[in-house]
């Protein structure tokens, strides 16, 4: 189980708290939604849960253990802006292989063309790169996914396709998913339960 216990965070000692005493838990195979308007700390919570930011107070754990400091983290964050998640000096093939071997059927399902594999991230559009970023984390080493507005830059048809692939993978592999959004209807369709901030 992925747990955040009494999480507190702010971006400077003189600044107001961005996250105040938030606790949540996500079980394997469960889809939890986090719903709030912009500016309510949703993205910061996602970064805390995935280890991108250290909590000032409180703790994040997976099955009772702290997140690893080295190697592939079992909690993977999908940013709204995929450029934040990939190494700009790596070719797409290397990015996709970070979590394991290439799954050609999965790449095809995401609409990732073979000729993309030799390109660099800046040679893809934002939507194309987001497909790569999402596909990269769907592997056996990932146990929890934090999806921060991950399909916001995609058109409606592509959004539906991507979410269906991700949900099928999550349920089949019993991976916990935290879906962060300000869209109530989207979360109601996707989630087992919703945490309103």
Radius of gyration over C-alpha positions, nearest whole angstrom: 16 Å
Largest sheet: 5 strands, parallel
- The number of helices is 6
CATH architecture tag: 3-Layer(aba) Sandwich
| Extended strand count | 9
How many angstroms does the end-to-end distance come to?
21 Å
Can you offer a commentary on this structure?
By secondary structure, the chain is α/β, with parallel strands linked by helices. It has one domain (29-51, 65-196): P-loop containing nucleotide triphosphate hydrolases (Rossmann fold). The protein contains six helices and nine strands. The strands form two sheets. It has a five-stranded parallel sheet, with helices on both faces. Strands 2-1-4-5 form a four-stranded antiparallel sheet, with helices on one face. The longest helix has 18 residues, at 156-173. The mean pLDDT is 91.
Concise overview:
This protein is of the alpha/beta class. The chain has helices spanning 42-49, 92-97, 104-109, 126-137, 156-173, 184-190; strands at residues 2-9, 19-26, 31-35, 57-62, 65-66, 75-78, 144-148, 176-181, 193-196.
């Amino acid at each position: 189980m992925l747990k955040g216990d009494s999480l507190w965070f702010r971006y400077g000692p003189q600044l107001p708290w961005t996250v105040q005493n938030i606790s949540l838990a996500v079980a394997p195979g469960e889809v939890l939604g986090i719903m709030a308007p912009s500016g309510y700390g949703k993205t910061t919570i996602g970064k805390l849960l995935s280890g991108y930011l250290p909590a000032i107070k409180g703790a994040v754990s997976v099955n009772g253990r702290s997140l690893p400091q080295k190697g592939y983290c079992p909690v993977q964050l999908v940013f709204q802006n995929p450029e934040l998640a990939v190494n700009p000096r790596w070719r797409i093939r290397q990015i996709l292989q970070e979590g394991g071997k290439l799954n050609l059927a999965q790449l095809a399902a995401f609409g990732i063309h073979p000729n993309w594999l030799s390109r660099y991230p800046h040679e893809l559009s934002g939507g194309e790169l987001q497909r790569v970023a999402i596909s990269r984390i769907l592997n056996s080493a990932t146990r929890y996914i934090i999806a921060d507005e991950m399909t916001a830059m995609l058109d409606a048809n592509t959004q539906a396709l991507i979410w269906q692939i991700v949900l099928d993978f999550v349920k089949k592999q019993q991976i916990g998913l935290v879906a962060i959004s300000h869209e109530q209807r989207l979360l109601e369709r996707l989630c087992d339960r919703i945490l309103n901030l």
